[in-house]
Design a protein that fits this description.
The complex is a heterodimer of chains A (about 120) and B (about 240). Chain A has about 120 residues and is mainly α. Chain A has helices at about 10-25, 35-45, 50-60, 80-100, 110-120, and strands at about 65, 70-75. Chain A has five helices and two strands. Classes of the chains: A mainly alpha (about 120), B alpha/beta (about 240). Chains A and B meet through helix 2 and helix 3 of A and helix 6 and helix 8 of B.
Amino acid sequence: MDWQFTEDRPIWQQLTDQLALRILKGEYPPGERLPGVRELAAQAGVNPNTMQRAMAQLEADGLAVGSRTAGRTVTQDVTVIEAAAKARARTAVRVCLETLEELGCGGEAALVLVKEELHHE
Amino acid sequence: MNETLVACTALTKRYGNKTALRGVDLELGRGRIVGLLGPNGSGKTTLIKILCGLLQPTEGAVLVDGQPVGPYTKSIISYLPDRMYFADWMKATDLFDLFADFYGDFDRTRAMTMCASLGVTPSDRLKSMSKGTKEKVQLVLVMARKAQLYLLDEPIAGVDPAARDFILNTILTNYNEEGTVLISTHLISDIEKVLDEAVFLKDGQITLHDTVDNIREREGKSVDALFREIFRAPNFEGGAF
């Protein structure tokens, strides 16, 4: 997976988002050791200090666990990961609903559309 | 060891009646990658040349690691000039010998490894190399030193975008962690994501010095976008033909 950055937000926040997504998707499974800051920074082509800040935020969010000697690992606590995944899904739904609202298909109409789309597949 | 690596106070430089720097105050800490950003003729190269002792300021003072510019500061500064200054009959290996002789912190093994990863054959003569390859050799010479301050004057201007990424990566993976890297450029979008801090230079004065994160957070736009806004050339008002 490639790293992508948009113009409007600090890069470390975008890094945190993308790292978190990898954890939620299971690309980095629970308990697995995460690559080192320098290695990830080189991969993403960003400053190591920026990556350090992103990783610190992952820890603060409870998705990663740091240890002095062994680097960082993905949390073993699956409930934390599930909760984070759910929160992200909710955000995605909210964004989708806002778009539908702007198009004039809010409320029940949105629900109908979603059902239609589901049956379609 | 001083916390502040570079301290400039009220730095002014005049060339005859042309003023290149006017009262620049600048402090740089350690372990950062700092972008020195400004349009052509804003004083970037002048500032860098003063830091490495090639130019004398007209007024003001510079301290590097607490010392005035002199033999000590030169020993801890690794400088990449904006143009090539080596004789073209030399081979890269000759230059390695020269640097090993001049600088105690030059790591020859490291230089050879970097050449290999950049696809440079160190036994080739400079005159047989392309412009981009020569720039890579210069970069190897500069980054293979374990310096405290790296001054890179337009390191990516002359190479293609693919080589640009490669060069930035070389800088990122090779700089000494306690060291600070000052990169002057006007190609901001290419280097924005590797920078900790940005210094905007306009007409010889510093108009902004902040972390890239703060700038993005406060302005809601990239440093590149902000730069274009601040330095946008006024519309040409020549009227119709």
